[in-house]
């Protein structure tokens, strides 16, 4: 009887996992728009209170990760040179949820102290036409400082930008990992 309960729990968790994978796959809307330049606007957090160091870390980690993924030009908010770029993608980010964690609690136990930040990302062309919208969550659950969640977000966002706007058609879709 005990084994049946474990089996039922395993089956439920498996079904939940595969359902979440299917939902996340459905969210992605691949686009044919390819760009070599991207402009990252300042991350907005109008309704959510986010510490200043998190806002700065989110922005700087995102810029750094996009540069590492291979975009020829990564423009910052207010950069006048962006207006002359061909096939420019503009990234608008808005913080939707922020949960400050506790580094000490993470070190003591693996079930408490997680930090997470959920950000709505909208990729547009230079005229403002929406190309892709997606919510991205950055988390730090086990070890590392609270700001590690900003790095996790930046890696995920840059991967989405790379996959949807930088991979040349006909390529095998491999991600640049450095």
Descriptive notes:
- This protein has 178 residues and is α/β, with parallel strands linked by helices.
- The chain has two domains: 1-30; 33-166, Rossmann fold, CATH 3.40.50.10610.
- 39% of the residues lie in helices and 24% in strands.
- It contains four helices and five strands.
- The chain has helices at 2-27, 52-69, 103-108, 148-166, and strands at residues 37-40, 73-76, 88-99, 115-125, 130-140.
- A five-stranded mixed beta sheet has the order 2-1-3-4-5, with helices on one face.
- Strand 1 (37-40), helix 2 and strand 2 (73-76) form a beta-alpha-beta unit.
- Helix 2 (52-69) runs parallel beside helix 4 (148-166).
